[in-house]
Amino acid sequence: MKERGHPITQLLLLLILASLVWPKTLPAQPLSFEVFSLENGLKVYYQFQPGANLTTVVFHFQGGQALETPGQAGLAYLATRLMAEVTDEDRLSELLASGVNLSAGSRADFSVIQFEGLTRHLDRTLAIVAAGLKNPLFSGPRIDRVRSTLRLEAGREACRLVDSALICLRRLIFPGSPYGQSLYGREADLRSIPRKDISQFYDSIMNSGALSLLVITDLEKKSLQEILARHLSWVKGKTPVPGKRFQAADLPPEKAAAGGCDHYQGPGGAAVALGYLFPGELAETYPAAYLLEKIIGEGPGSLIWNLRQESGLAYNLNSRLEILGGRIILVCYLETEKELAASSLTFLKKTFSSLGQQGLDPEALARGKVMARNSFRRESFSRDSRLGFLSLVLASGLPLDFFNNFLGLLDKKSPDQLNELIRATFSSDRAYEVVIVRE
Questions:
Q1: pTM score, two decimals?
Q2: DSSP 8-state code for residue 55
Q3: Which CB contacts under 8 angstroms, 24+ apart, belong to 348-351?
């Protein structure tokens, strides 16, 4: 996950923090978590990183955008932002003085509230944040202020070609689901969401069945347990989150072309988005899909690179994996000149069709494994990346062992397994297409 939610308060520049906190020699970044539970059933995913003097805590709520019903687009983001508000000015000033970063936001299948600060301030910081979570203030003026912020973010998003194309692509793949709307909501929905819907959303996720904690710290586990128990014993016992899985379209519909993606409201330009659903069980397929995504779109030498570097058909080109409702999607997207949109789409589809027919030779797959391992280790150096991936794993219903053993799962994929997945995924009749052309 590349973004951890909309920042509420940016309190310290990381470079300044680094100069004050980090030791001269850092140990290798840890790649595994352990899990324990508090007496009320609240699960805590704990990673010990000695010597950092820094603690990061994520409140991870299952559900996210998927819990929204028709007419509630933006509810998850709105409610989560309000839950993270520090309403007492003295307490807010205290957080500012302690150099705490606080952020909140929602994703397709989960929401997060995260704070990070010096470990010596953890007890007091958690007391302030937990007090706000226990008794959030859903007042009219606060709701209106956050609504205004979300309208602004939604407007910015609607002026970005790629973001708009990806929303329309999700709409094609999961017709009628909340995934086809902006995380920030729609104007009409934001205006009409009542306070009771916000309160009901809060009640549905503020319990140990929907909430878990993700913590990276230099505190020993026993000390951390004592602090968490002191401030979070009020969290209600386990209440299962209502399971929501939305049916993907069986066959890709006609592409949304030349104005067919009504989400985009920006200036002239063109964007193309192509999506493929991977078949199979999530736990079995995701490591192979991760590996293939690196081969297909990880910079120079990848399969789609010559679309920009050699043929010059695109000036912004990338690919990524998404997990929505337990389904894995490979998304390839690009920005290009208006007159090149059709050619870019044709080139992309031919590239994937050829891949589906021919597969990859063992040497290319071996190189891909090295690339995937190095990429995962590089990304894992960042705390936010580790926490983002763990959030995705938990939201997808996968066990902690899946995260802890991910590198081993990559290594276990044989060339035959990978080519079988390639043939089952990449064919012209399985492509979901979105083309935006704005004159």
A1: 0.89
A2: E
A3: 348/272, 348/274, 348/304, 348/307, 349/274, 349/428, 349/431, 349/433, 351/303, 351/304, 351/307
pLDDT average, residue stretch 186-202: 95
Q: What is the 3-state secondary structure (H, E, C) of 70-108?
A: CCCCCHHHHHHHHHCCCCCHHHHHHHHHHCCEEEEEECC
Q: Length of the chain, please? A: 439
Q: How many CA atoms lie within 13 A of 133 on its CB side?
A: 25
Which residues have a Cβ under 8 Å from the Cβ of 145 and sit 6 or more positions away?
none
Mean per-residue pLDDT for 244-251? 73
Q: What is the CATH number of domain 6-232?
A: 3.30.830.10
Residues 261-282 as b/e (b if ≥16 CB within 10 A, e otherwise) read bebbebeebbbbbbbbbbeeeb
Give the residue range(s) of CATH 3.30.830.10 domains in the chain: 6-232, 269-438
For 291-405, where are the E strands, in sequence order?
A: 316-324, 327-336
Q: Which residue has the tokens 């899909």?
A: 289
CATH 3.10.20.30 fits 269-438, yes or no: no
For 224, residues 6+ apart whose C-beta sits below 8 A from its C-beta are: 44, 46, 215, 217
